[in-house]
Amino acid sequence: MEAVFGNYILPCLCAFVACVGFTLIFNIHGLGKLIAGFGGALGWLVYLLAGSTIFAAFLAAAAIGVFAEVMGRVRRCPVTGYLLVALLPLVPGGGIYYAMRYCVAGDTGRFLSTLLHTFGMAAALAVGAMLASSLFRAVFSRLRPLPQKSKQRRN
Question: Which pLDDT does position 109 carry in this prediction?
Answer without folding.
Answer: 96
